[in-house]
Amino acid sequence: MRRHQIKTKVGLSVSLLTVGIIFLFSSVINDHFEYQLKQLISKQQFSMVSEICDSIDADLQDAQQALIAEAPLFLSVDPGRPEEAQQLLDSRPALHTIFDNALFLFSAEGKIIVESPYIKGRRGRDIAFREYYRKTVATMRPQISDPYVSTHTPGKPAVILTVPLVNPQGRLVAILAGSLDLTRDNFLGKLSRVKIGDTGYLYLYNSSRMLIMHPDPSRIMKQDLKPGVNRAFDKGIAGFEGTEESLNSKGVSSLTTVRHLKNTDWILAANFPVQEAYAPIAKAKKYANIAALAGAGASVGIVWLLMHYQMAPLSRFTERIRTLSMRDGVPEQVPPSTAAEIADLGSAFNEMVLRLATEHLALQEAITNLENEKAKTQAIIAAMGVGLTIMNTEFRVIYQNQQGIALMGNHVGKLCYQAFENHDSVCPGCPMALAFQDGLIHSSVRSVSPFGQQIFTEVTASPLRNASGRIIAGIEVVRDITEKRRMEETIEHLAFHDTLTGLPNRHLFHDHLRQAIAFAARNNQLLAVMFIDLDSFKAVNDEFGHAIGDQLLQGVAKRLKACCCRSGDTIARYGGDEFLVILSDLQNSENAAVVARHVVDELARVFVLSEQPVQSSVSIGISLYPQDGQDGETLVRNADLAMYQAKEHGRNDFCFYRRAAEEAAAERPEESSVLPALPIDVGRCLTHPPASERPGSERPC
After folding, report:
1. Among 109, 146, 99, 113, which residue's Cα sits nearest to residue 129?
2. pTM to 2 decimals?
3. By C-alpha distance, which of 62, 260, 55 is closest to 161?
4. Which of 49, 360, 419, 579 has the greatest CB tally within 10 Å of its CB?
């Protein structure tokens, strides 16, 4: 009975192995050809979409060139004589062939001069609100619009192409435009009727998610596809061009191809349902599986016949072993067999049972020693006082000591990058991964929140090798350095911030100013430096005491933050009662004047400090980059000069820097610590500079 069980098990195992190998090879071959065919289908679909995309680009360019070619004829049109303009527009058959909705001639002010075909009562209608008109006037270049609802053919979606008519003096005279009805059979309308296979289709959209052309007319001009629904749709907006599998708006898995047009921000896309696209592949796999199944059946039959013949001697050997008995604690030897293989097996069996008797005691002793070493190792690890984690080369945690569990949580049996960082793969710069790669010790500092509270840890990873030197695991030591990290951050903050007001100090201010100047230089922008000095601050200290003076400085800092709260602005305490402000990305100097006036007004309001009303005011000097200086030191110095000018005007005011103030300051005695009064023309102190002033323009003062 047992002989038959052995035969059955061995025969079944070999049969399963044979069938498994056959189906493995079949699966590998099927997967290879499936991959190749999918790549071929994707490339063919991309090539088709690319050709259509190039055709649309060419048609749009031809249409635009046709308008440009006819534009000179309309330069001499008199808007006051619309009948002549109507006759000229009606006589352009080439343009009517291209633009099937209508041709238009708009005035420079955005009024309809004439349109063809003529519709009564529409001349003079204002279209200045249209986006295509605004872009044409702003750029003075031909434009291709996004879809809009036409009023010439009411309710129909349309696209319009415009060409500005500019006279020799460079002035806009009129705008020539041609409109395409997206529901008609033009080169855009035809897209909705293009079929890919039986159910595939094309559609056109822009970077604002608006559908320009779609087989479903009700979706044209709508932004009804939300982000995240169609991955390929979203990637196309981000700049992707190619083919990939994704879900369409109806949730159907499709082979989607996206390609950008060159002349506009439009994107042409093709959706081909995967079920239809890959139908030939599924059919080929079906036939391949049938062939593999037939081959497997034939192989199983052959294996069973061979096993019956080859297992006969082993069956006889098994019967002999079954009848053996024990004598004085030693197994009886197996009698010799006539089959050479079985005889060798019998001799090996007899030697094995003798070795087992002698090795049993050695094994028991080794187990006892191993348990002692384990207890010693656990005691050493516990005494280290740090978190310790051991993981295999697949990054699965196989051990954590108690300190490690208390610090990071119990994650034994989990992958470390999933347990500690919630990642799907090995973390970039992982010290354990680096240790596995080069066999060296690596360390890093990382921020984790194992129990909902953020902590900083120092991780040291080292490889663990076996006797042959091969890396079999890794040891990770984790130390909690949260307090050390917070102390370093506190020290760094104190080094660059004022302890009284919490504002950046002069070191951090000059660093921010250098960065702001570099950014303004790259982008041709205007920035301002405001030098703010409290008027009569010493009198406040003398009358109320230094504690009130400190509270006043804190109150000033708080109000300055409220006045200058843009992300690009910097407010710093420069020392004593002096504050500096960087105003970046200004349109003109009037922007700085508005902020300065607001600061003056806010800081002139009474401060209530320890239930004591304190009246204060400030004098502000303003220098502008680039006209008042190309570097930070010059801008601060010139703002300081302008501040003294504001004080000489009576304080509680602001002034822009002017070169005359610098020349007067240069004539002052070096030993004087107080700026003398300058001969100032109040009308030329730029407390309200012209709004048109830009970087590089002439300053009036």
Report:
1. 109
2. 0.41
3. 62
4. 579
Q: Does any domain span residue 140?
A: yes
Q: Which residues contact 243 (CB under 8 A, 6 or more apart)?
A: 42, 43, 45, 46, 255, 256, 257
Task: Give, for 563, the enclosing helix (H) or strand (E).
Answer: helix 546-563
User: For 369-393, how does the pLDDT look when each residue is reduced to its tens digit (9 = 90+)?
Assistant: 878 877 777 677 766 668 888 999 8
Which of 141, 157, 181 is the C-terminal boundary of a domain?
A: 181
Same domain as 199, residue 177: no
Say whether both 249 and 140 belong to one domain. no
Whole-angstrom Cα distance, residue 35 to residue 57? 32
pLDDT tens-digit readout, 184-207? 888 887 787 888 888 888 988 888
Domain assignment present for 288: no
Pair (529, 406) in one structural domain? no
Assess if residue 304 is contained within a domain: no
Question: SS3 for 199?
Answer: coil
Residue 192's alpha-carbon distances to 161, 541, 562, 677, in angstroms, are 20, 80, 56, 79
Distance of CA 429 to the CA centre of its chain: 20
Does one domain contain both 581 and 652? yes
Q: Are strands 330-331 and 387-392 parallel, antiparallel or unpaired?
A: unpaired
* H/E element, 358: helix 340-384
**Measuring CA to CA, which residue among 616, 566, 618, 556 is closest to residue 591?**
566
Angle between helices 2-70 and 312-322 (to 10 degrees): 130
Say how many Å lie between the first and final Cα of the chain, rounded. 115
**CA–CA gap between residue 333 and residue 341 (Å, rounded):** 17
Two tokens, residue 282: 């599924």
Residue 690 included in any domain: no
The tally of CA atoms less than 13 A away on the side-chain side of residue 7 is 18
CB of 140 within 8 A of CB of 148?
no
